[in-house]
Amino acid sequence: MNFQRRFFLLGALGLGLAACGESTKTTEAGMWLDEGGFGNPTMHNTLLQSGKISLAEVMTRRFHAEVPSMVNFALDSAELSAEARDILRMQAHWMKQFPELRYTIYGHTDSLGSAAYNHRLGQRRADAVAQALVSFGVPRSSIIAVVSRGQSQPLIATLGYEPANRRTVTEISGLVRRATVMQGQYAQIIQREFIQSAQGAHRAQSLGSAQ
């Protein structure tokens, strides 16, 4: 009886090891590192190369993902706060990396006051942002339009006081000239970014060594 039980346990252990071995053979190396999104970049690249999405669309998504596109204002004011200027410095740094792109700045207000007054206030806010971006090194020619939306496009629909609606929004309007991705523009942008990032890392490493 003990012999049969021992034989059964050894057999079960052998089957378990065989199953583990079989699992190891059929499992791809690194499969657990796949986040499940491989198909999305592939589809994106296909659409980009086929011209079904434009370079401006691609860069617009990057801009909104990498820097804040909005700054806010105090009530009845077009003066930039310290926080707003910090955001605009971030915008300017990003914009200077991509001289191919052109931008429009939209000024918005909340619903307090008349529509005519708010249109003028939205324009003053957009102008203030454009001037700040230029002061931070963005070429004035990169900003092709400064537009007031006044109170017509609230972020939060309300008839009165709403700080979130007192804002400007920076948007990519297009490229310096019409061109397709097949001409290699996006590849040039990526190469330029790669070289700049490598140079930045080298400078940081040199400074660290000097210290």
Give your account of this protein's structure.
With 211 residues, the chain is an alpha+beta fold. It has a domain at 54-199: 2-Layer Sandwich (60s Ribosomal Protein L30, Chain: A). It is 52% helix and 13% strand. It has helices at 2-26, 39-49, 55-66, 82-96, 115-135, 185-210, and strands at residues 70-72, 101-108, 143-150, 167-175. A four-stranded mixed beta sheet has the order 1-4-2-3. Helix 5 links the parallel strand 2 and strand 3 (143-150). Mean pLDDT is 76; it is low at 3-10, 15-35 and 178-183.
- Tell me which CATH architecture of the domain at 54-199 applies here: 2-Layer Sandwich
CATH H-level homologous superfamily name of the domain at 54-199? OmpA-like domain
CATH topology of the domain at 54-199: 60s Ribosomal Protein L30, Chain: A
Average predicted confidence as pLDDT: 76
Strand content: 5-15%
- General form: elongated
Order of helices and strands: HHHEHEHEEH
Low-confidence stretches are 3-10, 15-35, 178-183
- The strand line-up of the biggest sheet is 1-4-2-3
Radius of gyration using CA atoms only:
28 Å
Largest sheet geometry = 4 strands, mixed
Structural class by sheet pairing and helices = alpha+beta
Give the class-level CATH name of the domain at 54-199: Alpha Beta
Number of strands: 4
- N-to-C CA distance: 76 Å
Q: List the total number of helices.
A: 6
Helix residue percentage = 40-55%
Chain-wise SSE layout:
Layout lengths: L1 H25 L12 H11 L5 H12 L3 E3 L9 H15 L4 E8 L6 H21 L7 E8 L16 E9 L9 H26 L1
Parallel strand pairs: 2-3
Antiparallel strand pairs: 1-4, 2-4
